[in-house]
Amino acid sequence: MSTKEISRADWTNFFDTFSRQHEGWLATLELFDPEVGAQELVDQLPLEGVSVSSEAHDLEDIAINFGGPAEDHISHVISGVTHVWLEKTAEGANAALEIESADKSKALLRFRSPVPAEFVDGIVSP
């Protein structure tokens, strides 16, 4: 796997493109907090999208939305984001997003396509 940091200046465009390409993909969201440890918040729900808040302050908030039946709809906001990394497989397909907050907590968004891999390339160009 290879990992590439996404520049803060590119976050809005990156997440717009990323969300369009991965809408409906099954996603898992894991949270890693230095004080609490690891916990899985979402397991294999369709991804609706990822977006950057429009608030004007030094640290951005990122919202991750998951679809499904109304009772399964989940929105998770990561506050004070400092870094975003995109992990790719050896073949160049997107594997996960890692999002780090100022408090050093991290969110790991892993996903898989709802269609066979040979029908999608999974590559996002920032």
Quick description:
The chain contains one helix and seven strands; from the N terminus they run E-H-E-E-E-E-E-E.
Key terms for this structure?
mainly beta, single chain, Protein Yojf, Chain: A, 126 residues
Report on this structure:
- It is a single chain.
- By secondary structure, this protein is mostly beta strands.
- The chain has one domain (2-115): Distorted Sandwich (Protein Yojf, Chain: A).
- It has one helix and seven strands.
- The protein has one helix at 11-22; strands at residues 2-5, 26-33, 37-52, 60-66, 74-88, 94-101, 106-112.
- A six-stranded antiparallel β-barrel has the order 2-3-4-5-6-7.
- The longest helix is centred in the N-terminal third of the chain and has 12 residues, at 11-22.
- The protein is globular, with a radius of gyration of 14 Å.
- The mean pLDDT is 85.
Structural class: mainly beta
Total separate domains: 1
Distance between the first and last residues' Cα: 18 Å
Approximate strand percentage: over 45%
What is Rg?
Answer: 14 Å
Order of adjacent strands in the largest pleated sheet: 2-3-4-5-6-7
N-to-C order of helices and strands = EHEEEEEE
Q: Summarize the main sheet.
A: 6 strands, antiparallel, barrel
Please report the total strand number as a whole number.
Answer: 7
Averaged pLDDT, please?
85
